C-alpha cells in the first residue's frame, strides 16, 4: 500500500494524475472510517505522510491553500492523540514541520562509504578547529613548537589525546598520524627522522637512521615532563584572519641563533614554566522555561482567578506573562474550555470572552482554538459521564468563535463530516440563530458551501431524511428551496388558483429567492407535474404518446390558468426563462419523451408569450450536462427552432426596410 501511494504521488508530481484525484486520496486516508478505531488507522496515516512528502509541495499552492490548511490542521490534532502509536504521531509531526519549513526535509546523516585515512584525519582536524599549514618539515616543526598558533579553546594532554590517538590506531604518546600537515609532539617516535636535521631544535642526527636522538656537547640528559600542553602563551593568540598573513614571514632560523624560545631553559630547550591557562568567565545561567506541569497549573490558576474577578485585561496580561511556547497554546485553550464546562452559563460565557480576547490580542490563533476544540471533543465520552450536556456547551463555544470570526463554519464542518460527534454541528447552528438571527445565519451558511447531507450520519444522508432532521431542529429555513419543492405541489393540489399560489409563495419564500434559477426550476416542475396528473391521473403511456383532443384542450387550459404566475416570475428575465425550459426538458425526459409533448409545450409557451424567442435560441445554443435529455429534446424541436430563428431574421429585415 505504501508503495502504491508513493507511485501515485510520483505520477501526481509529473501531472499524470489530476489534482482532484490526489485530494480525494488524501481525504480518504485522513477520514476516520466507520467502525474503525483511531489506533488502527496507523497504516492510512503513514500513507498520508508519504503522499504529502511526495506531492505535497505541488498541491500547496494558492488555490488549494485552504484545503491544505484543513488537512494539516487535522494532522496537527492527531499528533497529540495518545491513541495513535508514537511512531505514527512522530511521522505526522515531521510532515507538519516539513510543510512549515517550506517543504524542506530535515538534514539526515548520510554515510558516503569508506574513506581514506587522510580524509579521516582532515575531518578530525576540521572538527577540532586546528589550523595545520602544509609546508616543509622544518616549517612544520617550527610552527608546532610550544608557541605555535593553536586555538586557546583546545587543551591536549596525554589523557585527552589518548582517545584521539586510539581512534587513529596509535598508542598514547605518539603523534596524530604521519605525513604532511599532521600534529606531532616532542615525544612521538615519528619525530626521530626530523632530528637528523642539524637545525632541529639544536640536536644533531647520528646519520645511521636510528631514532635515538644525539644531544650537543654539554647538554644534560633528556627528561620527559609528565604532561604536554599545546595551549599557546596569551601573547601568541591570534585571530583566524591574522594567521595567514603571518605565515610567510616566519623565518627559517636555527634555534641556536635565535636563542631559547620563550618559556624554555637555555640549556635544555625544554619548557619549564608553561603559561597559565586563561579561564573564560562563567556564563550567566538563564532561568529554565517552565515545565508542562507548571504551565498547566498556571493556566488553571489563571482561569480560576479570572472567573472570580471577571477582569479580562488582567487575565490576558497573565497569559502574556506566562510566555507559553507555541506548542502549548492549544492545550492552554483546552484547559480554559474544560475548566468552565461544569460551571454556570455565565461563567461559560465569560470563558468564551477570555478565549476571544486571548486570540484577538495575538497570544493564540484561530487554528490553536480549533485544535483545542477538537481535543476536547476527543475527551467527550469521558466528560459526558459527569456532564451529559457537554456537546451543547461546546456548541456555545463554537458559535461564539464563529461570530468572532476566529473559526469559520466550513473549518468546523470539515472535522464533523459523516456525522462525527452528531448532532454537535446542528447544535452549533442553533446557537448561532439564538445569538444572531435566521437571516444572518442563512447568508453565512450559503457562503460556506457546506454540504449538509455530509454532516449527517451515513444512514441519514438523503434529502427527505435531511429535511426531516432539519425541521426537528428548526433549521429547515437554511434550505428554503428544498422545502418549496416538497410543499408547493401539495399547495397547488389544495388550491390551484393563481392568486392562492402567489400568496403562498410570497408568505413562505424569501423575495431574495424569487430570481433564483433553483426557485424557477421547482416552480415550473410543480406546474408540469400538476398538469400531467390532471389530464392523465393513471400515467397511461398510450395516452402520453397519443392524447385525446379533450386532453390536449385541458392541458392548454391549465397552462393558461398558471400563465399569470409564470409571467410574474419570468417576465424580462431571459436566464430564468432558460431555467424554466430546462425544467420542461427534465420533465419530458422523466416521462420518456412521449411523441410531440415537448414541441407542444414549446409552441404553447411561445404563443402565450410566457417564453420569449431569445430564450428559446439561448436554450438551443447552451451546452451543459447538468440536465439530462438535451440531445433527444433537440431532436424533437430542432425543426421548429429553425423556423423560429428564420422567422425572427425575416422580421428584423422587415423592420430595417
TrEMBL record:
<keyword id="KW-0597">Phosphoprotein</keyword>
<comment type="similarity">
    <text>Belongs to the eukaryotic initiation factor 4G family.</text>
</comment>
<dbReference type="InterPro" id="IPR003307">
    <property type="entry name" value="W2_domain"/>
</dbReference>
<dbReference type="Pfam" id="PF02847">
    <property type="entry name" value="MA3"/>
</dbReference>
<keyword id="KW-0007">Acetylation</keyword>
<feature type="domain" description="W2">
    <location>
        <begin position="471"/>
        <end position="654"/>
    </location>
</feature>
<feature type="region of interest" description="Disordered">
    <location>
        <begin position="249"/>
        <end position="290"/>
    </location>
</feature>
<dbReference type="InterPro" id="IPR003890">
    <property type="entry name" value="MIF4G-like_typ-3"/>
</dbReference>
<keyword id="KW-0488">Methylation</keyword>
<comment type="subunit">
    <text>Interacts with the serine/threonine protein kinases MKNK1 and MKNK2. Binds EIF4A and EIF3. Interacts with MIF4GD. Interacts with DAZAP2.</text>
</comment>
<feature type="domain" description="MI">
    <location>
        <begin position="294"/>
        <end position="417"/>
    </location>
</feature>
<dbReference type="Pfam" id="PF02020">
    <property type="entry name" value="W2"/>
</dbReference>
<comment type="function">
    <text>Appears to play a role in the switch from cap-dependent to IRES-mediated translation during mitosis, apoptosis and viral infection. Cleaved by some caspases and viral proteases.</text>
</comment>
<keyword id="KW-0396">Initiation factor</keyword>
<keyword id="KW-0832">Ubl conjugation</keyword>
<dbReference type="InterPro" id="IPR016024">
    <property type="entry name" value="ARM-type_fold"/>
</dbReference>
<keyword id="KW-0648">Protein biosynthesis</keyword>
<dbReference type="Pfam" id="PF02854">
    <property type="entry name" value="MIF4G"/>
</dbReference>
<dbReference type="GO" id="GO:0006417">
    <property type="term" value="P:regulation of translation"/>
</dbReference>
<protein>
    <recommendedName>
        <fullName>Eukaryotic translation initiation factor 4 gamma 2</fullName>
    </recommendedName>
</protein>
<dbReference type="GO" id="GO:0003743">
    <property type="term" value="F:translation initiation factor activity"/>
</dbReference>
<keyword id="KW-0810">Translation regulation</keyword>
<keyword id="KW-0678">Repressor</keyword>
<keyword id="KW-1017">Isopeptide bond</keyword>
<dbReference type="InterPro" id="IPR003891">
    <property type="entry name" value="Initiation_fac_eIF4g_MI"/>
</dbReference>
<feature type="region of interest" description="Disordered">
    <location>
        <begin position="197"/>
        <end position="225"/>
    </location>
</feature>
